[in-house]
Specification:
Elements (H helix, E strand, L loop, with lengths): L2 E5 L3 H13 L3 E6 L2 H11 L3 E5 L7 H9 L6 E6 L17 E4 L5 H8 L2
Parallel strand pairs: 1-2, 1-3, 3-4, 4-5
Helix pairs in contact: 2-3
Length: 117
């Protein structure tokens, strides 16, 4: 079972994403509301995938992605936002993330499509 860690500053989105991903067979092992906490928890829990909101208080998702990717055995990182991919220009493509899924389109199938078999 693929383990997932969710990073988003909205508790309601974290709860919704957790329920949705769990229903699709993912094991959500943790969550955080900001980047600083997330970095430490990701290092401790070592999930397979990090679902990471771009717009966070303090460190933004791009900075968190870069820091997490620089660690030992980094997880796959999938960025998300309530905004569309076009709103971030080339920042997503130039980031350490595997890809981007809009929050409105989040599903286990969307993650699987980015991550592959």
């Amino acid at each position: 079972m693929t383990t997932v860690f969710i990073v988003d500053d909205h508790a309601s989105f974290r709860a919704s994403a957790k329920a949705l991903l769990a229903a699709d067979g993912y094991d959500v092992v943790g969550e955080a509301g900001d980047g600083e906490v997330a970095i430490g928890e990701i290092e401790r829990l070592r999930p397979d995938v990090v679902l990471l909101d771009i717009q966070l208080p303090g460190l933004d998702g791009f900075e968190v992605a870069d820091r997490v990717a620089a660690g030992n055995r980094p997880p796959e990182i999938v960025l998300t936002s309530s905004r569309e991919l076009d709103d971030f220009g080339r920042l997503v493509a130039g980031s350490a993330a595997r890809g981007f899924v809009p929050k409105a389109e989040l599903s286990g199938a969307a993650l699987q499509a980015l991550l592959g078999p």
